[in-house]
């Protein structure tokens, strides 16, 4: 199994708007091999630990769910980076925005916790945390380094 | 830090929290805290199955915070031994308790009718469980899963018919495939009319300095996944030891009549992994995934129609229900494991009881009338399946006797020399030498995991160890495990959590302890457990060692009684008793 470096989360830092270049490329988290998941929840703990400094399941943008209990299959639910995201369209405050060729950005300060984004995302990739703020994957890849079974990959896509 | 104890009184239906900062500051968490709660809550001499005897669950300060800190400790008065009952389980319980906000849970009293406890954060409900009473442990989990909220973050623990029928070695099934197996927590649940407990929560845990936390976390995580400290659990899992011990003449076979099993390869971890393993899963927040699930596929007609059952297997089960019963086929083994899983019986005790019964039957100490015609013979899986059912249902005196653990029927029918228990608890799967025997005798819960005597024997096989050196190592393990079990980490990771890592991990969550303080704490926790044991009548000077241990060759050759006596004497002396 692979380990992690001293700063595991490349790109896990604060939001920054990179200048748009051609061809436009962005990183996207991919659930490459869901059937390899062992249900350790390491990705969820990594997401909350690295992005919020806490141990939490609620604050993790990636969710591992069981389907029919531990003896059933695990399901990994996370934003898959749509080109035309419904969550952005329904957000009434502009907390969720997307520039062409960029990923969806989330401004937590603007979020009023209406939950419309969560309803709009059929994948179920957005939920509200205990503070009634949306939790949305920013495709930083922090979870990838803590998946012991290579379920997750960070891929580069052209928009 | 939480430092909160949730009290639930099933008699009155009330529940409340108490902030117990002092308790957690002094005793850290886990087993340290649970022992104090048991001493507080359990009146001396209480009947283990009475409403006065409490059930206690505890997690530790690193639970859900660090990898492989996955266990929850349960304490109770054991209906099997009449003294300290302690058992550990993984799964998702520790995480669920942490996020529900309860570091310990105390359950008192007895519900009026079959009930289950549902905990969501601060909300505690006691619900009617009459409609699931009598339903097997696996099915009960499925039913409650659909009834209760908290998908993905909850834990569901429940008993099967064995617990309901107060069998003193009934266990509690945790989240499918994990168990509070030993010493009869299942019967304690049953005596309280408690079928299950479901817990989930939405809290999260902040740390004083998140950067420091991440640094220590990464160091420990890397040790878990990269070094060979946990290597054996990655691949074959604990059953790797079947072939290892068989070669070392340490694998108990046919009720310890032999320590090598000619068919061991058939039921070895390697064979199971190659031909039966379908997946591995893990406890919450453990990257290892040591839970091995085998597929038991049985044709029920000649037309390719199959029953498919998914059965989790581990070393101890393969010993107790496999080699110890002379079971030669993986199918037979998996079927027996699955049967224990459904009834909710501890697989080690069940296998040891059947091992004794088979030998007693062979020696005509018991008759077919007594077994109700069930053939108790080595490798007769069908007979054993029926016998397990009879143990749970107790249709006559003989099965009622078997249902009390191996000591009682051997007193009644004879055959104490081969009734394989130590400290009243059916023994684990090792005949490695004197340290294993002494370790389980002196251990706080008479488990191989108290001080890993089997491992000391195996070291002695490579480099000779004097009895006094063995005793010293047993004491060192007894004491250091008091600390590790107060963090309630998985013992498979004990090599990763060395003193330095424990001190740093604790500091990262705001608990400052020195190595010396932890050493002292470990010793004190051990003494407190013995305080409970002695209070409830345990006397180390009067422990029985079954003669069979001296008649069958071990990894270290024949064990002679004088060595064991000498080690027990040294042990008492070093402990100052």
What does the model show?
The complex is a heterodimer of chains A (159) and B (577). Chain A is built from three helices and nine strands. Chain A has helices spanning 42-52, 86-90, 116-120, and strands at residues 25-31, 54-55, 63-67, 73-77, 96-98, 104-106, 127-128, 134-135, 152-158. The longest helix of chain A is centred in the N-terminal third of the chain and has 11 residues, at 42-52. Chain A is globular, with a radius of gyration of 15 Å. Chain B has three domains: 4-201, Aldehyde ferredoxin oxidoreductase, N-terminal domain (Aldehyde Ferredoxin Oxidoreductase,  A, domain 1, 4-Layer Sandwich); 237-401, Aldehyde Ferredoxin Oxidoreductase Protein, subunit A, domain 2, CATH 1.10.569.10; 432-494 and 514-575, Aldehyde Ferredoxin Oxidoreductase Protein, subunit A, domain 3 (Orthogonal Bundle), CATH 1.10.599. In chain B, the strands form four sheets. A six-stranded mixed β-sheet of chain B has the order 2-1-6-3-4-5. A six-stranded mixed β-sheet of chain B has the order 8-7-12-9-10-11, with helices on both faces. In chain B, helix 1 (21-27) crosses helix 2 (30-41) and helix 18 runs antiparallel to helix 19. The two termini of chain B are 37 Å apart. The A-B interface holds A 1-6, 8, 38-42, 45, 48-50, 52-59, 63-66, 69-71, 130, 146, 148-149 and B 64-65, 67, 91, 95, 98-99, 141-142, 145, 151-153, 175-177, 202-207, 210, 213-215, 217-218, 221-222, 225-226, 234, 279-289, 293, 310. Strand 2 of chain A pairs antiparallel with strand 13 of chain B.
- Terminal CA distance of chain B: 37 Å
Record the strand order, biggest sheet of chain A: 1-9
Question: Main β-sheet of chain A, in a few words?
Answer: 2 strands, antiparallel
Large-scale geometry of chain B? globular
Q: In terms of structural class, how would the helical and strand content of chain B be classed?
A: alpha+beta
> CATH fold name of the largest domain in chain B, please?
Aldehyde Ferredoxin Oxidoreductase,  A, domain 1
- Averaged pLDDT of chain A, please? 87
Low-pLDDT residue intervals, each spanning 5 or more residues of chain B: none
